[in-house]
Amino acid sequence: MRIGLYPGTFDPVTLGHLDIIRRASTLVDRLVIGVAINRDKGPLFSLEERVAMLEAECAAVSAETGTEIVAHPFENLLIDCARDVGASMIIRGLRAVADFEYEFQMVGMNRRLDDSIETVFLMAEAEHQAIASKLVKEIARLGGDVTPFVTSQVRAALVDRFGPPQMNAAQ
To answer: Which of 32, 52, 78, 171 is most buried per CB count within 10 Å?
Structure first.
């Protein structure tokens, strides 16, 4: 059984994340979504909320592809998480050159720690390349409409936190 690990904070999960999840699920029999517990980032949504959002969003992808998709919180080294879940590959999404530079360093370190686990990069689809959870939260916080970047369920969660989008007087 081929097991892949797609790690991230997913605060919140975006259409870009879901695109990578959908495409990664065709490469493996089981896709583990590693939900990072990163206390330094100060997430907007709790770990439980992020896991629940991912489980809800991934159910349809799992049904569509036949791939088992599970959310798995982790707080240890990524390579240790990969070992813990039996992953033979770590899947990473790339949006831009800046992502590649960071990921290139991570691959080098992870290979030194365990060279039996490969890293597979999937380029974000063009329509998702600008999407970042950090920017989605900022748009929502400032009263903008996040509809183009997240699913309706995630949008509702953001509206619960920040209120509905404000109408721009210039429109």
So the answer is: 32
